[in-house]
Amino acid sequence: MKTSLDELQAFTQVVDGGSITAAAEQLGQTASGISRALGRLEEKLGVTLLRRTTRRLELTEEGALFLAQARRIVAAVEDAEEQMSLRRQAPAGRLRVNAASPFMLHVLVPLVAGFRQRYPLIELELNSNDQIIDLLEQRTDLAIRIGALRDSSLHARPLGRSRVRVLASPSYLAARGMPRTPAELDGHDLLGFTQPDSLNLWPLRHEQGDQLPIAPTLKASSGETLRQLALAGAGLVCLSDFMTAEDRRSGTLVEVLAAHSADTRQPINAVYYRNTALAARIACFLDYLSECLAGQDWAKS
Predict the structure, then answer these.
(1) Given Cys at both, which of 41, 72, 91, 273 links 7, Cβ 3.0 to 4.6 Å?
(2) What residues does CATH 3.40.190.10 cover in the chain?
(3) What is the CATH number of domain 5-89?
């Protein structure tokens, strides 16, 4: 049987207080509970730690030797608890965050300065990946996922929803013309994703429903690559508002087929592995992100 922290605390407090009664008052326990803890400790160690008389307690030689070790152990645990308490009050440590490059560039990067100012002891490590990663394998604390979630082993915190639209640059439309119906897309250059196929379902109402499967003329794995291609006049694209809101405001990209568009929104979730207690550095990042995203114009549109 292993010695417990409660037994060590009972032993050191009895020595410090000079009696079992004093130790019980200090620890908020009964005198009989403290006495039993001492008895269990001595039984586990196979030695007598304290000589008990009707008037006082006296350390044995073995007790004096063990007391020094017991004090170090109790002090180490108390110090660790204090450090964790301080981290809750002022979160600290490395925080590894993963997100697809468009979300990283257009949403997270602009928020970094404010987060670091509020939580200067947190060391941010930002990683971009346009494919779904294994959080444990990549040693990642938190990932931002766009779209439907499939991994039930993860805990998810919803951050919002972002509408997707069909867009094109004015230069492309001037050269190729504005399509008036979804059927007219057949005569246009369409920019799509290499995977998954669900990203090549455009939110356009047609005879078969509200999602139109397209056959991309040009494919890319990253939404940011597709955005840059669209800005360069390479074709029509379907992207989320979180990465194109400023383009639409400035007029560098304009919405196409708005009258035929279904209001389709991609869920945005922060995911992390389930824990009994969420680390303070992760919790404060989630709270900060939720606070900031609630004020984004694209999240309200």
Answers:
(1) 41
(2) 94-160+268-300, 162-265
(3) 1.10.10.10
How would DSSP label each residue in 129-151?
-SS---TTTTT-SEEEEES----
Q: What are the pLDDT digits (tens) for 170-202? A: 999 999 999 999 999 998 999 999 988 889 999
Beta bridge partners of 165: 239
CATH number listed for the domain at residues 162-265: 3.40.190.10
CA angle 114, 118, 119 (to 5 degrees): 115
SS percent in the chain: helix, strand, coil, step 5: 45, 25, 30
What residue type is assigned to position 17 of the chain?
G
pLDDT, one tens digit per residue, over 197-240 is 889 999 999 888 889 999 999 999 999 999 999 999 999 999 99
